Each structure stands twice: as C-alpha cells, then as structure tokens.
Amino acid sequence: MNGQPGRARVLVVGAEPFRATTGSGITLANLFAGWPRDRLAQVYTAAAEPSTEVCSRFHRIDPRSSPVDHYGRRFLSRGGSPWGRADPAIGAIPVSAGAPSSARLHAELRALADLSPLRIAGPLVEWVRAFRPDVVYSMLGSVRIMRLADRLAECSGAPLVPHFMDDWPATLYASGELLGYGQRSVRRHLDRVMRRCVSGLCISDEMAREYERRYDRPFAAFANCVDESAFVDPVDGRAETGALRLSYVGGLHLDRWAVLRQVGLALGELPGDLPRPRLTVHAPEADLVRYRDRFVDCPQVHLGESLGGAEVTRALAEADVLVHVESFRPELRRYTRFSLSTKIPQYLAAGRPVLAYGPGELASMRHLDAAGAALGVGVEDQRQLRQALERLCRDGALRGRLARAGHEWAWRHHSRGQVARAFAARLTEVSAVAVPGPVSERTAR
C-alpha cells in the first residue's frame, strides 16, 4: 500500500459526487466518514457541486468530452417534454410491454448515449496517477461508469472494488435496446470489471450471497449507516392519543409515488371513530413537482418540503409512524429485489414504528421484518393495508414494541462508527491483494 501505514488511498469513481441530496451521495458520505482527506479522491460525471465535508479532492468529467452522451442526455431531460416525462426514468428498469412507443424510443436513445464513445483525457490520467490510489471504488450502474472505473483502475494499477446498490446487471437494457447490443455491452464490460475485482461489495446480505454465487467472488454487505448523534430515543406509542402523524422521507421514483397514493387513499377509508391520520411526504424537489398532481384526490396526504441532512433527523423524530413503500410492478421488483433503501437505517435509528407496504420477498421488506421494526403488508391488497393502518392507530403498545426493536437493531447493525470501521478494514484488506493481471484489449471494445 502506498504512503504511510493506515487506511487505503481510495479513488471513488461514479456518476454522483459526495453530497447530502441523493441516496448514493449520502451513503458515500457515511461510509467514508472520518477518512483521512489526503487518502480520498473522487472522479464523477454528474452536473452537481460536491460536498467537501468528507472529501476535498475532486475531478469532474467534462460532459462535452463525450458529445453523444452529453447532448443526448440534454435532449432526453428537456423539461416538460415527452422525453422528460418518459417512464421508466432509470435505464436499468426494462420498458414494460404496454409502454407507449415514445417510452421505447426514449430507452433506445438513452442506451445510445450510455454506450457512446468515452474519451478520457491525458490530464485526468496524470491526476489519478499523481494521487496513487491503492483501491478504485465504484458503485458503477451504467456502461459509461464501468468503462471509466475500469480504465482508471488500469492506468493506476489498483484493484477495482465494485459496490452494487441494485441488481442492475440483471435488468440494464433487458428490453433489447439497440437490437440487443446494449445488454451484450453490459455483460462484456461487467466481465471486464470482475476480472479486475478480487472482492466486491453489495448493499444487502441477500445480494452478497447471490453475487458470490453469480460471479464466483467474495462479497460483503455494506449499506447506508447513521451517525450516533442522529439516533433518537424510541417513542412510547401508548402516549399518543390524537391523530397519528405518518411520514415518508425519500424519492418518489421507482413507482413509489403510486404505492404512497394507495396508502393515502387507505387513510381516508379508516373507520370514522378514529382521528384522521395524516401522511406527510418529504421528497426531492424535482419529485414533488413531477408527482404533485397524483395526490390531488388524497386529502390525507400532505406534500412537505425537500429536506437536507439534519432536517431529515428532525422530521423523522416528529413522526409517530414512518412509512416505507416499494413498487409491486414485476420489472421494478426484479430491479429492487436485493436493495436496501438509504432511508431504512435512518428510519430504524429514529426509534419510530414503520408501516412497510411492498412485495414481501424484497430485501428491504425482509430487513425491516428481521429487525422487528415494522408492521408489514407484503401483498398488494387495499383491505390488508387498511387493517394494518387501523391496527397501528389503535395499538399504542404495538407501536412502542416496533420502535424499540428497530432502534436496538439500528445500534447493532447501522451505527456509523462500527460500519465505517468495518468498511475501511475491508478496503484496506483488498488493497493488500495483488492486482489482477491485465485484461485483454479485445474484450474492451
């Protein structure tokens, strides 16, 4: 390992920089909390300003260095256009069979942009070599980022550690984009990444077990973690006598808006002797604007403001019940089946009971069930959803038990001190392993 003894010198490569406004940015900041600043650097592609709280050395890829990708994405994201409203919004989600032709064309153009030539300028290579990383770490997620991470690992001579947040390798371009070339390109570049990988990371234990079987490599699970100062004493549900305050904090993409709408409608159908609960939804500003009209017939749903880091802790503490939802759409279930949402560790640390509504086989639902923190409804059934909501409203002792169990689980599994230390140890261990041999140039094309 280069430099003085201690933590590995890590080059983080990805689309998103360190920042507190996206799930991946929050997870990065928490996992790398306390890392020596001279041993951390990041290369990223998003048009965003990074947070310098954890990392202070950045290199943003000039989007104009890949004209097809740059202008293609600008065209596809034009505000108010059919392209900007196309569904799905994430490339790794296959286009459903009944999707309009505009959505299919959108998917084709998005794939074309992702697979377009990537030019890595000489100054970036020199910048990376001057940093002398021991490890290249990346959440990957697209062909473009796989190419970027692979080439920077190659030019630096460091091992590549991929960290999988969703099962995008199984779903990216699975709709046959570019006559199947998109998915073939995913497989080819993922194979190249795995040849440089001696040990990988996943977001959940279930994903780690699946990926060990799938890719014949050791994998360890690391999800978002929570600073000890953000833990809140568990609520005593028996003390609540008025209308319950329900809160959801997170994105409305992945069809979560539709499932939240079901929750809002169910709240309006509760027995008349119950004080009417209210669900407050805190989401990114772009999501609040995009999906606001979907809740006009849900008077029990209030769209709150977009929250920053410290504001999330306060909002969770002010709630009586927290809400977690996942989509029941088959293509989304496949994409999220091993995922663990960024907000789940935050929910558990908040010491509040959770209503969980989504497919019961998903890792996020199973995690909440294992923690004993949630009253879960694992099938799409409005009657069962109403029953769960009514039970939470009437049974304060149940709310208290769920809150205490989740809080204890969070201390054992999600406190930032222990998770960040284990994460650092894992990367340092990888940095001591010999770098895999060079990958054939033939496989890179």
From TrEMBL:
Query: Is Transit peptide among this UniProt entry's keywords?
Result: no
Provide an example Pfam family for this protein. Glyco_trans_1_2
SUPFAM superfamilies named in the record: UDP-Glycosyltransferase/glycogen phosphorylase (SSF53756)
Report the GO molecular function annotations: transferase activity
Q: Which Gene3D superfamilies match?
A: Glycogen Phosphorylase B (3.40.50.2000)
Sorted UniProt keywords = Transferase
Q: Which residues cross the membrane?
A: none
Q: Which InterPro entries match?
A: YkvP/CgeB_Glyco_trans-like (IPR055259)
- The Spore protein YkvP/CgeB glycosyl transferase-like domain sits at 273-423
The name this protein carries in UniProt is Glycosyltransferase involved in cell wall bisynthesis
Q: Which organism is this protein's natural source? A: Micromonospora citrea
Q: What is the lineage of its organism?
A: Bacteria, Bacillati, Actinomycetota, Actinomycetes, Micromonosporales
